[in-house]
Design goal:
Elements lengths: L15 E2 L3 E5 L4 E7 L8 E5 L7 E5 L7 E3 L2 E6 L4 E6 L8 E7 L6 E10 L14 E5 L7 E5 L4 H30 L17
Parallel strand pairs: 2-10
Antiparallel strand pairs: 1-3, 3-8, 4-5, 4-9, 6-7, 7-8, 9-10, 11-12
Length: about 200
C-alpha cells in the first residue's frame, strides 16, 4: 500500500520509529513497538489509521503518563523509562489491514512513523461430519412376530412409553381372548335327547 506523507509529516532525526510492516492472524492479536528519543517522554503518543496522515483517524492515545489506555479493540501504553510505547490490537479482522502511524503530539507538526499492517486470513475450519448412534430394537406382537424398529438413544424414553402402550392394547385383549377360548372349550357338555331313567321302585 502506498503511503502519502504529505505536508506536515516529520521523522526528523528518527525521533519516532517503528517497524515498517507488521502482520497478525485474523481473530488474533498483534503488538507494535514504537520508539522515540528522550525529548518526548511526557508528550502524548497516539495510534492513527489511514494512508494519508492528514486525514488519518486517531484510534487511541496516551494521556502523557504511563497509564495504559484502551479503546474498543486497541490499547496503548507508554514506557517512558525505556523510551517506547506499545500499541496492541486484538480480535483482528481482515479489514484492519491498512497503514497506521506511530505518532507523538507536539506543537506544530506531529512526529509520525508509518507502519503497514497486514492481516493473515484464518484457515477455514474443515467440515466435520456428525454421526448419530442408532439402535435397532425388535418388537414382537401377535399380528407380526418380528418387527424391527430403529431408534436413537435420545428417543428411547419416548419409545419405551409407546412400546408399553402397544403391549397394553395388544397383549391384554389377546390374553382375554385366549382365556375366553379356554373357558368355552371347558364348558359343561349337555347331550340332548338322553334322559336318565328313574330307578326301579321294586
Amino acid at each position: 500500500m502506498q503511503v502519502r506523507l504529505g505536508e506536515g509529516y516529520s521523522t526528523a532525526n528518527n525521533e519516532v520509529t517503528g517497524p515498517k510492516t507488521k502482520s497478525g492472524p485474523e481473530r488474533g492479536s498483534l503488538t507494535v513497538q514504537c520508539n522515540y528519543t528522550s525529548g518526548w517522554k511526557t508528550h502524548k503518543k497516539y495510534w492513527c489509521r489511514g494512508a494519508v496522515w492528514r486525514s488519518c483517524k486517531t484510534l487511541v492515545s496516551t494521556t502523557g503518563s504511563e497509564q495504559e489506555v484502551k479503546k474498543d479493540r486497541v490499547s496503548i501504553r507508554d514506557d517512558q523509562e525505556r523510551l517506547m510505547f506499545m500499541v496492541s490490537m486484538v480480535d483482528l479482522r481482515r479489514d484492519d489491514a491498512d497503514i497506521y502511524w506511530c505518532a507523538i503530539e507536539r506543537s506544530g507538526y506531529d512526529l509520525k512513523f508509518p507502519v503497514d499492517v497486514t492481516i493473515d486470513p484464518a484457515p477455514e475450519n474443515p467440515v466435520t461430519a456428525r454421526t448419530t448412534t442408532v439402535t435397532s430394537i425388535t418388537v414382537k406382537t401377535a399380528s407380526n412376530p418380528s418387527v424391527t424398529r430403529t431408534t436413537s438413544p435420545l428417543k428411547w424414553s419416548l419409545f419405551s412409553s409407546t412400546y408399553f402402550l402397544i403391549l397394553v392394547f395388544l397383549e391384554v385383549p389377546l390374553l382375554l381372548g385366549m382365556l375366553s377360548a379356554v373357558l368355552w372349550v371347558n364348558r359343561p357338555q349337555r347331550c340332548p335327547g338322553r334322559r336318565r331313567s328313574p330307578p326301579d321302585e321294586n
